[in-house]
Specification:
Layout: H1 12-20, H2 23-33, H3 52-61, E1 67-75, E2 98-106, E3 111-117, E4 122-128, E5 131-136, E6 141-147, H4 149-163, H5 177-188, E7 192-202, E8 205-214, E9 221-229, E10 235-242, E11 251-259, E12 277-283, H6 289-302, E13 319-322, E14 329-332, H7 337-341, H8 345-356, H9 359-369, H10 378-387, E15 389-391, E16 394-398, E17 403-406, E18 412-415, H11 419-425
Parallel strand pairs: 6-12
Antiparallel strand pairs: 1-2, 1-11, 2-3, 3-4, 4-5, 5-6, 7-8, 8-9, 9-10, 10-11, 13-14, 14-18, 15-16, 16-17, 17-18
Length: 426
């Protein structure tokens, strides 16, 4: 059943919310998920001393491991109360504020399941190699994502090479984990102070703590603390602290229990609940994918991977960056927010093309938007109005970690900076 044929339901916003929200709100959501997973910590651990460089090297060299556990995610972003009718439900919107519980399973490879648990509902994402499923018990809907024929052929070929132990030719030129750690540390220390805090215990496991502290006072981020498992070197916790509140992290996600053992195979197999409606989405392969991959391989062969390129050289047209490091502000010009809120597919495609650069990929965005070229639910406009406030310069979203300004002339300014910084640049 295509989205254009689907009946409009008030609950449909819940399953589409991460994709349908306005660009400013979407950036805020993306920023919230930009940090590595956080784990709830308790107690101290007695571990051998390590330097920040040694700790980064261990993380870089670590092999993926299977994992089963319960994660508690807490956001204290200072956003207004969201217009979610079922505040205790398994709705991705709840990740913007308060605490949520998730169950995670992974085989350490290409099979995983994540379930967002509500009081009496569930939102799950299951990934199995070239396929993925989402299920919302609130909507009782399954969405099945598959690759198109070309994408599946490319995936199968790469998987076969991996099983045979065939590595890309450029693999021999890759730097060692120690070299990567030195590069990462050097880059981070351009704008931050990187140190190792006292060991701790996370979900019953001894862990090291890496602390990244911005060197500037112009950012909302006070520090980022990452807990790393002593045995597996897997990140166990990231706490993002805001300058607005020194007492508790603004963003925290963490295991309350964790086991690095393979989950039962049945847990990673998706079975649609009886009676659930299932919608099929085919993920298109960009027409120029083969050329892009060949060009990437050629560039990678000549690339000095110990040097980090200037990211501003990779920016698409219409995107500029003011400042650098933690207090950098990204500006996107030519965004018709009013048209996006009204469900203008052409405006959404224009914005997407600047980021994705593929006409066929826009079809996938249309599936995620769920609008079928028609109008978006009114709830999207309500969400935009709820999360932003009117200022002389436009509409402003302020949180403890991120500020977003949408101007009347079609510019969107985003940064981990105080709102006054964006207003000054507008």
């Amino acid at each position: 059943m295509s989205t254009s044929d689907a009946p409009v339901r008030s609950s449909s916003l819940r399953s589409r919310a991460p994709w349908a929200v306005p660009v400013g709100v979407a950036v805020a959501v993306a920023a919230a998920f930009g940090a590595p997973p956080l784990l709830a910590a308790a107690g101290d651990a007695d571990l051998p001393d390590v330097t920040a460089e040694e700790l980064l090297a261990r993380v870089a060299a670590a092999e993926p491991v299977p994992v089963t556990g319960t994660v508690v995610y807490t956001a204290r972003l200072g956003l207004p109360e969201l217009p979610v009718s079922e505040a205790t439900g398994a709705d991705p919107l709840v990740l913007l504020g308060g605490s949520s519980t998730l169950r995670v399973w992974s085989d350490g490879g290409e099979r995983s399941r994540v379930s967002l648990l509500g009081t009496a509902s569930e939102y799950s994402v299951v990934h199995d190699g070239p396929e993925a499923w989402t299920y919302s018990s609130v909507d009782d809907e399954v969405v099945h994502y598959t690759l198109d024929a070309e994408g599946r052929a490319r995936y199968d070929a790469a998987a076969e090479k991996a099983r045979d132990g065939v590595r890309p030719e450029v693999a021999e030129g890759l730097p060692t984990p120690e070299e990567l750690a030195r590069t990462a540390l050097t880059r981070a220390e351009e704008h931050s102070t990187v140190s190792v805090d006292a060991p701790t215990t996370v979900a019953g496991r001894p862990a090291y703590q890496a602390v990244v502290t911005p060197r500037t006072s112009g950012t909302l981020v006070d520090r980022v603390v990452v807990a790393v498992d002593h045995e597996t070197s897997a990140p166990l916790r990231v706490q993002v602290w805001s300058t607005q509140d020194p007492d508790v992290p603004a963003l925290e996600i963490g295991f309350t229990d964790v086991s690095f053992s393979a989950p039962d195979a049945g847990v990673l197999e998706f079975s649609a609940p009886a009676g659930a409606e299932q919608r099929e989405v085919v993920v298109p392969t960009p027409p120029d994918a083969a050329d892009a991959e060949r060009l990437a391989q050629e560039r990678l062969s000549d690339l000095d991977l110990t040097e980090v390129p200037d990211p501003t050289e990779l920016l698409p047209p219409g995107v500029t960056v003011t400042g650098e490091g933690w207090d950098a502000v990204t500006e996107v010009a030519g965004v018709d927010v009013a048209a996006l809120l009204a469900g203008d597919a052409a405006s959404a495609d224009e914005l997407g093309e600047r980021v994705i650069g593929s006409e066929r990929a826009q079809e996938l965005i249309g599936e995620f938007r769920g609008d079928g070229g028609g109008e978006l639910d009114l709830d999207v406009s309500v969400l935009y109005e709820q999360l932003t406030t009117e200022v002389p310069e436009g509409r402003l979203l302020s949180s403890t970690l991120l500020s977003v300004l949408v101007t009347p002339d079609g510019r969107v300014l985003v940064g981990a900076v105080p709102a006054a910084t964006l207003l000054g640049l507008a």
